[in-house]
Amino acid sequence: MFPKTGRKIPAGAPRESPGYAAAIAEALRADLGSSHQAIKTLMRWTGAKERTVKNWLSGANGPSGEHLLEIIRNSDLVFGCVLSLVDRRLSLSNRKLEELRDLLQTTTHLLSEMTKVQELPRSH
Question: Among 35, 55, 116, 120, which has the highest number of CB atoms less than 10 A from its own CB?
Fold first, then answer.
């Protein structure tokens, strides 16, 4: 006799945490919104189908494997969300500190340039 076939997940198979899908969906919506443009953007980033992307945005399912990597490549919010989910906030803090350092360096340079312009002698 042949076993029944179907779409049931075997008992020993790992299941996706509902917190994961919801957290990723929240980060995606915060980064991209929930418009059709967000769906198209995610489809372009990942190559996933529209129904799949809609499931990610609704929190019904979360992206896995290569799709998640492509999303992280394009979204700092999802990257931060994943780090938070795996309790690696220190890594996130280090990344934010590097971004802040770069921003401060740029700001310092711009202020220096503005000061030079203001110090030029004015002819009357």
Answer: 55
